[in-house]
Amino acid sequence: MGFSVNASGDLMPLSTSPFASGASVTSPVIDPTGKFLFAGDTSNKAILTFSIDSATGTLTRVGPATQVAAPPFVLTIVKAP
């Protein structure tokens, strides 16, 4: 389930929520540019990619999941200097 925060600080459900994902989504991380969110899907051994709308914060799934060899329990993004 996804939410936005309105002007008075209340959480409002996003119209695009709930998001299609696997049964066990873990470790969401946002890239340094703030344009993408990545999450591990441990049940399907995959990485999910979402774009982030800069005006609304709405997540949109980008392409198919990226399959990996083992369940991705922890994701980390390192920004090079």
Give the topology.
Layout: E1 3-5, E2 11-13, E3 25-30, E4 36-41, E5 46-52, E6 59-61, E7 66-67
Antiparallel strand pairs: 1-2, 3-4, 4-5, 5-6, 5-7
Give your account of this protein's structure.
- This protein is mainly β and 81 residues long.
- It has one domain.
- The protein has strands spanning 3-5, 11-13, 25-30, 36-41, 46-52, 59-61, 66-67.
- The model has no long low-confidence stretch (mean pLDDT 84).
Query: In sequence order, what are the helices and strands, one letter per element?
Result: EEEEEEE
Q: How many domain units?
A: 1
Number of strands: 7
Sheet/helix structural class: mainly beta
Descriptive terms for the model:
37% strand; two-stranded antiparallel sheet; mainly beta; single chain
